[in-house]
Amino acid sequence: METKRFDRIVAILIHLQSRKIVKAKDLADRFQVSLRTIYRDIRSLEQAGVPIYSEAGSGYELMDHYKLPPVMFTQEEAMSFIAAEKLVGKYVDRDLSQHFMNAMFKIKSILKGSEKEWLQTIESTIVMSSPAQSLFNSEAPETLTLLFESIAKKQQTLIHYKGIQDTFAANRIIEPIGLFHEGGFWYVYAYCLKRSDYRQFRTDRIFTITSTEIPYTLQHPSVHTFLLQKKENAPKTKVRIRVDNEVVHFLKWERVHFGFESEIISEHTTEMTFYCRDTTEGFSRWFLMFADQADIIEPEELKDDIRQMLTTIQRRINKV
C-alpha cells in the first residue's frame, strides 16, 4: 500500500511540473482516488520541501524555477512512445511530425543502453499504414503547428480554403477554437469572420495558412461544447436493419459513423438500430455494400431511396 502511495505522489509531482495549474479534482480523477487523498498527498509533497503554491478555486502550481531531477521511464512507458511515434508519423502534418521526432530523440537519449536496444527491436516490428486519404495539403505542411499556436495565443489565422461545394479556394480569416478527428479527417472548429458564424474546416482543404498577430474579437465556447451541440441538434432518423450474422463482424468498424445505437443478436441474424443524420446518401450507399445479406425494417423512406438507387444502377449498366 505504501509503495502504491509513493508511486502516486511521485506521479502527482510529475503532473504538477507538466502543467501551469492543476486542479485537485483532475488529480483525483486521474488517479481514481478521493479529494481527501489528494489533499493528503499534496501535504506530503510540501512537507518534503516541494514548493507548491495553491489558491482556493484555482488549483495547485509549482513555484517558478523548480525542476525535477531527470526522469527515468519504465519499459512499458518507453514502449508507449514507440506506438505514439508510429501514429504521429501518419496522422499529423509534416511539420508537427518533425517536432515530435526531435522530442523522441531527446527522450531516447536518457534511456539506458539496454532499454535503447530493446526499443529498437520493438520499433522494427511495428508497421503503420498510411490513411486511405491525405489528411493535410502538401502545400501547407505546418497546418497543425500554426493552428495550435493561434489557439494558444488567441490570435487570428488566415487560410486559403476550398470547401466541398466551392469552385475555387478563397481566403478566410478565422479564430480557431479547437481541433477534432472525425470520419478519417482532421477538422478545425473556428469562428469565421467572413460568415460571422462558427464553422468547421477540414485540414486537407486548407491550401495555405498564415499566422497573424491580430487578437480574437470574441470570447468563444470550447470545442467540446460545439461537438456536444452538433450531436444533440443534428436531425436524426431512426433506422432498423436485420443483417445475416456471417457479415455482421465486417460492419463493426464502420457502423459507428452512421449513428449506431444498439443491436439484438439472434441465432442467424442481428438486428441493428441506428439514429442516422444522413439516410438519403450516406447510409443508403453504405447499406448497398451488404444489401444482398440484409433487410430494412424501417423506415419506408430508406427502402424508397434504395429502390431508386438500384433502378439508376440497372439503367446505367444496361446503357453500356
Automatic annotation (TrEMBL):
Q: Which UniProt keywords apply?
A: Transcription, Transcription regulation
Q: Fetch the InterPro entries from UniProt.
A: CBASS_pafABC_assoc_protein, DeoR_HTH, HTH_11, PafC-like, WCX_dom, WH-like_DNA-bd_sf, WH_DNA-bd_sf, WYL_dom
Write down the Pfam families for this protein, in alphabetical order. Answer: HTH_11, WCX, WYL
Q: Which residues form a coiled coil?
A: none
TM region(s), chain numbering: none
Occurrences of domain HTH deoR-type (ranges): 5-60
SUPFAM superfamilies in the cross-refs: Winged helix' DNA-binding domain
Question: Which PANTHER family did the record assign?
Answer: PROTEIN PAFB, PTHR34580
The name under which this protein is listed is: YafY family protein
